[in-house]
Design goal:
Length: about 425
């Protein structure tokens, strides 16, 4: 690898899949010499379908049943420039998978009622199950880029309900979204861990935008979608994430909009809630634990909806203000005398008015149509804000009356 990807640990881990000589026993490092572990299982076109999946563990000498964490890398397409040396891989990736899947996603405007995967996706799913069987007690971390992202998405969706809970996190980059070509059962499975899957897409990369609707963001997609705020690169470099940049906190810069950020933050908080609920459920819930879980879920739901409604109101206000601004400019221009006319500005304005261009037909129309919508959105914001306050005040009153419960709440909240 002659060019470095941005120094972000999860992206670096994902792109390590493109290193040469990915054989069993190899100790894997990222581009900044961070050790990722040792490759212990390799599925390199094992079935002839073109799958390239690698299992990586920290200690290869540890007994498989004692391994607590496994990294699984799903490699992306072999570049067309490798056609002379790796013709079968290039054909499998581009002719039998990339183009076929892209066509199926594009043609499937609604959610599919059946599994529309390719043989490579199915083979990748079998590889993941095989890895999970070898390491029966390990949590699984998944990474993929491009076609590897699609392989990873499908492999997770093809797991059983009990298996999917072993997925600790997944980071996938610049791959088309396969959600709409999954079967209803597969969508239900992968939705169970929606808040654990970080699905990055670059709007400047045409490949990663296949199957995506920026207006919907994470809704109707595999995992939580993050649209990358990237810099312009050439076609290949854009797809290979070389346009990615980091923010001041060292995280991948993303475009902020309501359909991704607000919804994703809510999903992440709900994942934390589910983890503590699972922890507390080990010995059965005490009455105080049940009070805590009920109150925490109510708070999270109310605050999440409140935040999303507030953000959507902001979007509506911007649309309204932009519309009024544009209409105002049109109305002001009505007094401008077109070149070659001998009318005065007043006569020009009257002529436009006689033609139907008036305050009522421009600004007035926008105000008439948008005001009820804005009023409804404002009322929703107030209602949910009031509900959130009522829930918090009710919980606080209960805690003020019961100091023992208050102390337990503090302990449990520290786990979230």
């Amino acid at each position: 690898m002659t060019q470095n990807y941005v120094k972000e640990d999860n992206l670096q881990t994902a792109m390590a899949e493109y290193q040469d000589n990915m054989g069993e026993g190899r100790t894997l490092y990222d581009q900044y010499e961070r050790e990722l572990g040792t490759v212990t299982q390799v599925y390199n076109n094992t079935t002839g379908a073109g799958e390239q999946v690698y299992a990586v563990v920290k200690n290869p000498d540890e007994k498989a049943e004692d391994v607590q964490e496994v990294t699984v890398l799903f490699r992306g397409s072999t570049g067309p420039d490798h056609i002379l040396n790796e013709a079968p891989d290039v054909w499998n990736d581009w002719a039998e998978n990339d183009s076929v899947i892209a066509k199926r996603i594009i043609m499937q405007s609604d959610l599919s009622d059946r599994d529309q995967s390719t043989e490579q996706l199915k083979a990748s799913a079998r590889a993941l199950k095989d890895i999970m069987e070898k390491y029966p007690n390990a949590k699984i971390n998944i990474y993929g880029h491009s076609l590897g992202s699609m392989d990873a998405q499908y492999a997770m969706a093809a797991l059983e309900a009990a298996q999917i809970e072993r997925i600790q996190q997944a980071y996938i980059y610049n791959g088309p979204d396969v959600y709409r070509i999954l079967s209803p059962e597969q969508r239900k499975i992968v939705d169970q861990i929606k808040g654990r899957i970080y699905n990055y897409a670059d709007p400047k990369d045409k490949i990663s935008m296949v199957g995506r609707d920026p207006n919907k963001g994470s809704i109707g997609s595999v995992g939580m979608v993050y649209y990358v705020d990237s810099e312009q690169e050439g076609f290949v470099n854009q797809h290979m994430t070389y346009g990615y940049r980091l923010d001041k906190d060292g995280k991948i810069k993303i475009l902020s909009n309501t359909s991704t950020v607000a919804y994703n933050n809510f999903l992440i908080k709900m994942e934390s809630f589910k983890r503590i609920k699972k922890s507390l459920a080990a010995d059965g819930f005490t009455s105080n634990e049940q009070i805590f879980l009920d109150s925490e879920q109510a708070k999270l739901t109310a605050s999440g909806i409140c935040y999303i409604v507030t953000e959507e109101l902001g979007v509506l206000k911007k649309i309204y203000n932009d519309g009024v601004q544009d209409a105002s400019e049109v109305l002001v221009s009505c007094s401008n005398v077109p070149w070659g006319f001998i009318l005065s500005p007043y006569e020009t304005e009257v002529a436009y008015s006689d033609g139907g261009v008036t305050y009522e037909t421009t600004i007035g129309v926008i105000q008439k149509r948008f005001t009820p919508v804005l009023d409804t959105a404002k009322q929703l914001e107030k209602d949910f804000t009031d509900l959130e306050k009522q829930i918090k005040n009710g919980i606080q009153k209960k805690l003020d009356e019961d100091k023992e419960l208050a102390n337990e709440f503090k302990q449990w909240e520290s786990l979230i």
